[in-house]
């Protein structure tokens, strides 16, 4: 089953939005983009419309407005939208890596007759370059009255074989802090240590190098956004610090015991 053709407006047309759009175009959806940078040439190549004027973009009668901004810029972007220019109730969707933050912002700022769908595609241009089959897609129908539009949007991902995971924004952020944030943190620590491959790498070390390289490809803004706007991340950072100190103390204790036996 494929989704019904939608008019999808995208705010923030960076690499991740461009990655998603290629599949949406292939499925027959009508795409229009708005971004701080000028993507006119790229949009012309893709055969979609680019709006440099946000008011004209909002007035273009989108079925869906997809928020693809960074975590740190979302508040400024959404509060600056000329929402009084909306010509119809619209489904607003975000794809941020944190969920409670965009949910709360959208409920606070958007018109009450606009629907809110929070999502997190758990993949990107690298992991999804050969297709989206079996890749996880999290979503939370925060406020949905137009089920047809919402279902058609979700079908974009379901029809590509994504593993569709419905959960609350709170559940997502708690799980994400224990997985995505921890992974990014470990990767950033390894990058600070400047670890590199050696001629005698174990399989385990090769995986650590991959974690470091993956974390380094993402911006520090993304990493800091995962920390600042996920209330569960603070505890995970404390857990990492505590675990490191515990292991350090165990090593010191073992060293002291060894020294005592040899003296």
CATH topology of the largest domain, anyone?
Rossmann fold
Rg on CA atoms, Å: 22 Å
- In the predicted model, the low-confidence regions spanning at least 5 consecutive residues are none
Q: Give the N-to-C terminal Cα separation.
A: 75 Å
Instruction: Output the CATH homologous superfamily of the largest domain.
Output: NAD(P)-binding Rossmann-like Domain
Residue share in helices?
A: 40-55%
Q: SSE order in H/E notation?
A: EHEHEHEHEHEEHEHHHH
Whole-number total of structural domains: 2
Strand order of the largest sheet: 3-2-1-4-5-6-7-8
Helix count from the secondary structure assignment? 10
Average predicted local confidence, pLDDT: 96
Say how many strands there are: 8
What is the CATH C level class of the largest domain, in words? Answer: Alpha Beta
% residues in beta strands: 15-25%
In terms of topology, how is this protein built?
Blueprint: E1 7-11, H1 15-26, E2 30-34, H2 40-46, E3 49-51, H3 54-58, E4 64-67, H4 74-79, E5 91-94, H5 100-109, E6 115-121, E7 136-143, H6 147-158, E8 163-166, H7 169-192, H8 203-217, H9 220-228, H10 233-262
Parallel strand pairs: 1-2, 1-4, 2-3, 4-5, 5-6, 7-8
Antiparallel strand pairs: 6-7
Q: What can you see in these coordinates?
A:
This protein has 263 residues and is an alpha/beta fold. The chain has two domains: 7-167, Rossmann fold, CATH 3.40.50; 171-262, no CATH class. 49% of the residues lie in helices and 15% in strands. An eight-stranded mixed sheet has the order 3-2-1-4-5-6-7-8, sandwiched between helices. The protein starts with 6 loop residues before the first strand and ends with a helix.
């Amino acid at each position: 089953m494929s989704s019904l053709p939608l008019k999808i407006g995208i705010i923030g047309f960076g690499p991740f939005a461009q990655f998603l759009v290629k599949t949406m175009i292939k499925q027959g959806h009508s795409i229009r983009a708005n971004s701080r940078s000028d993507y006119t040439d790229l949009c012309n190549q893709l055969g979609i419309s680019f709006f440099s004027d946000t008011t004209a973009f909002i007035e273009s009668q989108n079925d869906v407005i997809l928020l693809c901004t960074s975590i740190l810029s979302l508040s400024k972007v959404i509060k600056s939208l000329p929402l009084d220019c909306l010509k119809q109730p619209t489904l607003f969707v975000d794809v941020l890596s944190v969920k409670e933050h965009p949910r709360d912002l959208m409920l606070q700022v958007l018109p009450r007759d606009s629907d809110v769908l929070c999502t997190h595609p758990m993949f990107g241009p690298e992991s999804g370059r050969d297709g989206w089959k079996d890749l996880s897609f999290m979503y939370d129908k925060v406020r949905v009255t137009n089920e047809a539009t919402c279902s058609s949007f979700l079908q974009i991902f379901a029809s590509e074989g994504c593993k569709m995971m419905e959960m609350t924004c709170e559940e997502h952020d708690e799980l994400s802090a224990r997985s995505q944030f921890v992974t990014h943190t470990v990767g950033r620590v390894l990058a600070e240590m400047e670890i590199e491959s050696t001629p005698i790498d174990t399989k385990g070390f090769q995986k650590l190098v991959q974690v470091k390289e993956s974390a380094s490809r993402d911006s520090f803004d993304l990493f800091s956004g995962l920390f600042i706007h996920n209330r569960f991340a603070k505890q995970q950072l404390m857990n990492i610090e505590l675990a490191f100190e515990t292991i350090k103390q165990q090593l010191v204790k073992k060293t002291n015991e060894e020294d005592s036996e040899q003296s």
